[in-house]
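Running this now, will post back.
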Amino acid sequence: MNWSFLQGVLSGVNKYSTAVGRIWLSVVFIFRVLVYVVATEDVWDDEQKDFVCNTLQPGCTNVCYDEFFPVSHVRLWALQLILVTCPSLLVVMHVAYREERERRHRRKHGPNAQSLYENPSKKRGGLWWTYLLSLVFKAAVDSGFLYIFHRLYHGHYDMPRVVACSESPCPHTVDCYISRPTEKTIFIYFMVVIAVICILLNLTEVTYLVGKRCLETFRRMRRQSRRQSHLPDTCPPYVLSKGEHPANGNSDLMKAGSTAVDTAQLMANHLLSCLCQDFSNL
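Update: finished.
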């Protein structure tokens, strides 16, 4: 199987990733793709050929093999690797869309026109959401495949040396022997542990992105609240109520610019404006 295209995708998305994302890409490429290509395919190359049962009944060996190995480990891991790397391709495509949109804008309005994006590859606006959803999707894919693996093999990660089979058309309960059980067990545990590490890295990166975004939002809100709390010295602190005249030395005074602002409402409005700005900057 040729994995050069997958290597190109992972290398291209590396420059758009955070530090945690680069660690995830290194783990996937070194400990999953290379291990799969170099070692795992060779270990499972003889899985059906060397699955031997102590019977000469035609079809019994094939039925027993299908009973204990409904899906090949190698093919399951290959499908998992393809699906877990596809969201990275979406990030690259989104950046390419932004760059093409920027080129069309400059071609239409001239080279001195105002740019649509400060930096097309910077994770702001719609690209931030694409990157975040790609992380969630990758973690969900790895988690889903671990669950599928657990259900297919009933939570048994140890490869047995001998299995007993009584499926039809076997004439009686026969013993079937699996080739390289210890070596296969080691690779099964290795691939499962690496998948768990990748899930933790994805969740760590999601936490980092969301936490960083929340801190930036709170800092902007704090700066806005400080600007609103400081009135310029040229403004009079009090003005007379409209339509009222002083009477008996008493007048209705109204403090200019002293409208109370609810902090929770200000936060909600600011977050809503940020979301609207994100979707407008796709």
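Strands lie at 52-53, 162-165, 174-177, 238-240, 253-255. More later if anyone needs it.
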